[in-house]
Design goal:
The protein has 249 residues and is an alpha+beta fold. The chain has eight helices and eleven strands. The chain has one domain: Hypothetical Protein Pfu-838710-001 (Beta Barrel), CATH 2.40.320.10. Helix 1 packs parallel to helix 3.
């Protein structure tokens, strides 16, 4: 990490995981932006007084590891690619510094709202346990043949607005892998604003607007899938991949 970025991060007022529960926003509107890592320090410097930063065991840049599941026909990926309004993702996510692991289901409805449902698990399961299968079936109201489809890892900075009900996640050092296939996205930063409804008065939205950076719909899962699998239909995401590669070149 660049020293200047670390310096800015350490200046932001901390917030604990327990304190952050008030802004959990399990049902929310997500708005994403993409920037080059070189622009992150200045952005954080400009908004640092409006936010607190999540700190766990004295760590402010946290490590996340995820394992996504899909059907053999890659239903979840294809639903997203084919613009299906009601769609879902199933993943296991480990929050490394806090040593917590969850089985999570993210469901998007026709109004653009995202609902996240999760249960605690001991660790990653490449073979889904009966408890996990039951949770997935009850949550999704259907029985699916699921298998591990892609691993994902990244570092995350989480900010909580001091006055507005919003959280901000900043993901960097993104990588994907399955078996011997690996793809890294160096220099790419994905910013995700989580609110009850999109509010343009958010400090980060205002700062990005000054740089002519607009909201950009992007799925880390889908970008990872087309980076690892060469047999997927991806015409809907082709321009997104071109934009990302151009941004981080």
């Amino acid at each position: 990490m660049k020293k200047t970025l670390e310096h800015i991060i350490n200046k932001i007022e901390p917030i604990s995981l327990d304190e952050m529960d008030a802004v959990s926003l399990m049902k929310r509107t997500d708005t994403k932006f993409v920037i080059h890592e070189k622009d992150l320090t200045l952005l954080l410097e400009n908004i640092q007084n409006q936010y607190k930063i999540l700190e766990i065991n004295e760590n402010r840049v946290l490590t996340y590891s995820s394992l996504y599941f899909d059907t053999p026909s890659k239903k979840f990926y294809n639903d997203h690619h084919n613009k299906k309004v009601n769609r879902a993702k199933v993943r296991m996510r480990k929050y490394v510094e806090s040593n917590l692991c969850f089985l999570e289901i993210k469901q998007k409805d026709g109004k653009g709202k995202t609902k996240k449902t999760r249960i605690t698990i001991d660790d990653f399961e490449t073979e889904l346990s009966n408890n996990s299968l039951e949770f997935i079936q009850n949550t999704m109201q259907s029985k699916l043949d699921l298998e591990p489809i892609i691993w994902n890892a990244f570092n995350r900075i989480t900010l909580v607005n001091k006055t507005m009900k919003e959280r901000l996640t900043i993901d960097l050092n993104l990588s994907f892998k399955i078996k011997d296939s690996l793809k890294n996205y160096h220099n790419l930063v994905i910013i995700e604003l989580k609110q009850e409804r999109f509010n343009r008065n958010s400090p980060v939205v205002q700062q990005l607007k000054l740089k002519h950076i607009n909201p950009y719909k992007l799925s880390k899962y889908c970008i990872g899938m087309i980076s690892i699998y060469d047999d997927l239909k991806y015409n809907r995401f082709k321009q997104k991949l071109i934009k990302i590669n151009k941004l981080i070149a």
